[in-house]
């Protein structure tokens, strides 16, 4: 038995039917790599069960303290039933991408059963009319409560539920004997709560003194202009209305080589490219609805606090900062430069501000108080007035640079899903792996009734930025004297040429198969080439080469 940490408890306390606090993921798999070339559902269940039994957190349920006066505990469930958590479903005919998005949105909208281990998995068949999905291919959608994992720890969770070899028999078997916890009695929990409340009061007092001291240092730094002052006056949009219980899901894909080209051409970070693309997408989307503000929008960026706090036993170690998107700048390259400046300022602010840990407040107070405040806040529609004007949360997660398998089937694509908070009805989750970057879009259905159109806005924003960068690169190359290329390093020259030729300008449709597959996953029927290329590469080479490592900003969740 283990008591939840402060931040893990915060996500339990923030749970509400309209804004359930779980995150998810959607993987698409090629069964041809499995022994025999096909996969049975019982094989997937057996593979999950064997691996999950070795990790107690997936067999643990919440045990609340009487009266909710103290943080809850994780106890290993003696009645754990893996078949309750893993379900087998299929898309109705014709089984296309739009239907898959609708199904995933509905599954992600449903809260988890808080009386059982806080995760579920769905094996989804019937993907026959999604271009690019290998023959017999299937999807696995998983969701788990945020109290179990944050975005930066997501890669470790993926390793838990996947194999590293196509032959699951090569994976060591789970232990034959599994121990479980005996739930303590009411008197024991009440006594522990009394002791913990005394300890927590002392921690709150000392922590309050520490926060005041850090706030003083930050104020001095701001006065001396060593620490930038964050923007807290961003305009509110349709995504700041009260979030309802229904969701929409969409996704775009991009070649990581193109993203790297943009990063190198503009001398910025990959996350700056991502933010600038989102800014362009929001510009197009809101302008289409005649709702684009004259001032810049802002987003929240989760921060991985592991390097700041050091190692702890909490599942979550995440903070957040605000970054201006400069949606008031029309030129894509000028906007990218402005986003880079804002993200650097946000980084400095995050390194010096104790306010990046503000989410912990939801876990410091007793659950009885916090859950009552959250319910009142959401049920009375106070989200219209209280939160800052944050239009979205943007989380960037690095995936593995090696192939993963489920019951022998290779994962050829992965899309992450975040969570919505009462005052922010849009979440972007970026996942990079094996040369492809996916951008998943989760939104409140009332705020975004047209997710496919927003995905097109994102794709057009990326094309516009890529075309502008390549136009500058080509102009600079043409302006150099004939002898200049000989003075450049071969590696740099080759990189620029390869990036410039790997995909055409955004206005044209002459993109490589993978990029085009991404750009038009559904409406433009191009997802097929992307998935098929990854699958074929895996069959020939056993893996998809990738020399890129994207560092999670957590950037991530959340």
Automatic annotation (TrEMBL):
Keyword Acyltransferase on entry: yes
Composition bias, Low complexity: 477-513
EC number: 2.3.1.20
Residue ranges that the Swiss-Prot or TrEMBL entry lists as coiled coil: none
Enzyme class, first EC level, given as a word: transferase
Family annotation (Pfam families): WS_DGAT_C (PF06974), WS_DGAT_cat (PF03007)
Domain O-acyltransferase WSD1 C-terminal: 316-465
Keyword list, A-Z: Acyltransferase, Glycerol metabolism, Lipid biosynthesis, Lipid metabolism, Transferase
Keyword Transport on entry: no
Source organism superkingdom: Bacteria
Region: Disordered, residue numbers: 477-524
Protein name according to UniProt: diacylglycerol O-acyltransferase
